[in-house]
Amino acid sequence: MSKLSYAAKRALKMDWGRMLETAKMLHKKTGKSTAWLLKDMVQCALKYNAGYMDYKIAAMYNLNDAQRRTVITRGISNSIVRRMNDKAYWFNFDDKTTFNTLFADQVGRKWIKVDESLTAEALADFLSDLPNVLYKPLEGSSGVGIVKFEKKDWEEDLNAFLKKVQGMGAGLLEELLIQHPEMSRLCPTSVNTVRIATLIGDKQEGIVYAFLRIGNGKVMDNVDQGGMAARVDLNSGKLLTVAADKAGNVFDRHPMTDTPIVGFTIPYFEEAKQMCLTAMHKVPQVRFVAWDVAITADGPRFIEGNSFPSHAVPQFAAHYPDGIGILPEFRKFIDI
């Protein structure tokens, strides 16, 4: 494909309305002209395959060309996934019942599938010793559709509860994990998970990055649900950076609990790493996986594995004060 054809194809795919909105928002934030920002955004889309959210989250308007080449943009991330992960095997991660079965030892909690075949008797047996549960859609991401239920929601009328969850569509009910007290000290409303990305690369295999995702008042810690994230040192398990959310807000202490973020040490981090390094060989056809790991008082547990990892968290500008992004870490594993 010629450069002109490529540019035309990219131009047709651009969401010009959202790009203009983003340029106007960044104008208010930076003082740079909307026209300059829009032009620069288009150049980054063509040159670095960056979407308007990449441009905003990675603060590409503040970066020079050398720095911009180190950002893992949407286009680069998608190309890594296509190259590393055989789509025929994604179901092992995308279908939550398949994942929970395949990694039962690492999941370590009760769950039951919700569909039209679920009976009141089976549901009652599942719920008999549980104070609360999570409903999760069978497929989905970014925490969409996840609902927390408490015992009061089913103890008076189990049949009504069964009808309610079946009406929410195919999914599963899952025992709610109790996180380590140290993790609750950061944010008690959500299970704060460590996202650990493993890669079976052509040059080497191992962990590319780790980030701690922290809730901010909601049940979920996901950044698409208002949560925040901080970068984890792979050797020590300490948080290296301030936390940042998708809106660009930065936190050195948690706004709800006032717990310091920089320097916070994740319990059982070495065990969490080893769990992911072992699990990455379970489905070798999927070579790049982002594992979401909860830390309990008894050690790490899998929440889920992502066969198409979001590239948002690993490129928040606040995590790279020198402007050098995470792409060099990937280049230790594969040629990009």
Walk me through the structure.
By secondary structure, this protein is of the alpha+beta class. Helix content is 35%, strand content 18%. The mean pLDDT is 91.
Number of strands: 11
Which whole number gives the mean pLDDT?
A: 91
Low-confidence stretches: none
The quaternary organization reads as: single chain
Any idea what the CATH superfamily of the largest domain is called?
A: ATP-grasp fold, B domain
* Helical content band: 25-40%
Largest sheet: 7 strands, antiparallel
| Beta-strand content | 15-25%
CATH class value of the largest domain? Alpha Beta
The fold-level CATH name of the largest domain is: D-amino Acid Aminotransferase, Chain A, domain 1
Q: What is the CATH architecture descriptor of the largest domain? A: 2-Layer Sandwich
- How many individual domains? 3
Task: Please report the number of helical segments.
Answer: 14
| Strands ordered across the widest β-sheet | 9-8-7-6-5-10-11
Gyration radius from CA atoms, angstroms: 21 Å
| End-to-end C-alpha gap | 19 Å
The shape, in one word, is: globular
**Helix-strand category:** alpha+beta
Write a short abstract of this structure:
With 336 residues, this protein is α+β, with helices and mostly antiparallel strands. It has 14 helices and eleven strands.
Map the helices and strands.
Blueprint: H1 3-13, H2 16-30, H3 34-48, H4 52-57, H5 65-68, H6 74-84, H7 91-94, H8 96-102, H9 104-107, E1 111-114, H10 120-127, E2 132-137, E3 147-150, H11 158-167, E4 171-175, H12 181-186, E5 194-200, E6 205-214, E7 228-231, E8 243-245, E9 250-251, H13 269-279, E10 288-296, E11 299-306, H14 327-331
Antiparallel strand pairs: 1-4, 2-3, 2-4, 5-6, 5-10, 6-7, 7-8, 8-9, 10-11
Helix pairs in contact: 2-3
